[in-house]
């Protein structure tokens, strides 16, 4: 696809549509929109637009579709696969002015929000009404909820409560042609034609620009317990996972991290929270499971905790820390949630997001370390292991730029091949974007990619929306 | 699309592919494949094929794609929207030989099954391993699980545990071109390209033929309580619904039926089960809610039941029946699950399947009865009301054939318009098929239908697979 340049005439048309103050052409200010949290990628947009209504976006899309200008929608810029980067330059549409919670419908347990609302702001707003929106990505303090829908974000609660897409009932979307549609209806069940709502979730801004989201909500569980369970090896921790779930418990969080992840994060946490970390991470314990159980009944929670502990006892595990104070729980979650920035503060990384059936986790973790040895990289592994979702941060450290961009990528390809051979796939919650795009043929056949390209064409005949992503 | 005839040469090629014994040309035998449970529709296929492997289906599809022969896949023939009817004649592919449960993976809580397995057979097989597959359509004793995926079936447990699509992790599919793909991976979370798995769910056999399904499973809840709650009007019952959920309880079933539905079903039940129904349905109570709570702790269940009852007390309700014996529970579920055949034994019906946000239910039920008066039809209403999903059986009774096919359809159009005006849509779990197809423009804009046609074209460029359905 040969795209056109953004002409000065187009710029002035954009100014008419969104107002001069919402058109960014200054290169320094544009630079802020050139990167996200993915490695060290940077692609400068020709112009950044900050529309305020779906109608404005519709007019922008019609113009860009007519003139073959690439358009890349952008949320909070916290993505980990480069989904919001304008790899073909052109127009970036920043959704930052779509920042209103339009309605929290307490009777229907639904909320309608604009995509530029920060996830944590939304979580807190529904909490004030006694309601619960479970998806909880680590970046919740700065990510936009529209980005969560586009990448189908998960987080620690997903193991019990599902990922973002499980809460999306309906979407208002501006199509690349400028048409504005609702994808479905505000209902809990829907068998009315193809599921456009679910097709949009996780489509990484390549099919349309989301302008309103209808979420379903739940009641808040009133109580929780948190267990920190040390294991002598990461393989042993991974072996325990499937057995814990087979025992019939349904944890509201089941996280894994290597001791190394905690070590690299503690300094970072102590600095940003200005508080000493008191949890011990003994040297002879290589890996940890952080297990949260929630509900409304103390006795039931204690029974479930006992069931978890009696499974863990069968493995080579250390003493279980039962976090019984709010402060202790908070510290453990702080460490877990800061692993990604903590490790990144230590070294540039490539952040992988593989996912396998739970029982394959021991083979996966052993295989990753073996591949690391073979290709010469260290990795820090952690993640939402109850879902089979392992984050693998491959660290640059002393690796040369050349090796980093060639040999190490081959090693990552090996990790993906192993993952797929174990019944898994490339991404559990970060998306493909540009960072994982070269590896897609490992995960699926050409026939799958052909179908995806055909779907893309049905939505975006000229291929102007977020080009260069996924496939 | 001008389709071709099934020539004798093609028949002999089909015989080579699937074996002569799996090709049905005898008209009387073909007739069995001409109808399902939808009204009195009947469309005779030119030939019925019973392939045994995905590869056989692939070869059939290649031939039919090349010769422009329409192909309609068929499950158990229990559909309620005509999704499996060969409206353009041609080939019916019956999935009856795909009847094996291939694997129940107890460690990963997953199962791989062929689409021709009867839903109840699968439910029982996983139950034997101490596991739980919650989707539970009323036709579970005869429907095929592949049909459940294709129509995205629900049932009473959906209100707590979700519909069929919430359990589908991965699908093996033969595309109209003959390509065989897996749509995703056997994982609990997946953000790897467009969600082809969810796109297949509910696509009513128009995008590909499902040949293997990977489901996720859960642990079985050990205990349940069941409450039958009478209300003086159907509006009053519908008003109570949203308040019950707002109170924070999470029922595993929340069903509604009018007294009339029970009355019409009791005879039917007494006949097929040869047992007298003992539950009283007093004349002054017009509507009932059947509320099931499940879990593993008696005390928690009793607390939840009390919470439900204290909400219901605020409405104009009668005495609540607390079903404490297995026999009483079984009788109540028998009545509920036999309403559809019970009502149909009494009169030919058009079975609607509308769904709205819960708080809109009172307006919906009042409006349906008002429309019935205006257009001259009686209706029996029941359904999975906790999901906002109301089944409306419009009864033919003494209505003339002419009115039945014109005026009554206009009245049904009014019901759909009302539903959509209340934020709802046409189908919660039965699908669109041919029966609801004329009403699709009420539920969505032309732009949505254009997208759906584009998706269809990406999968099925020649439009041979299950033509004439949905749009």
Automatic annotation (TrEMBL), chains A, B:
Species annotation: Chryseosolibacter histidini
InterPro entries linked to this entry: FAD-bd_oxidored_4_C, FAD-bd_PCMH, FAD-bd_PCMH-like_sf, FAD-bd_PCMH_sub1, FAD-bd_PCMH_sub2, FAD-linked_Oxase-like_C, FAD-linked_OxidoTrans_Type4, Oxid_FAD_bind_N
PANTHER family, per database record: GLYCOLATE OXIDASE SUBUNIT GLCD
Pfam name, any one: FAD_binding_4
Top-rank lineage group of the source organism: Bacteria
Classification via PROSITE patterns: FAD_PCMH
FAD-binding PCMH-type domain location: 41-220
Name this protein carries in UniProt: FAD-binding protein
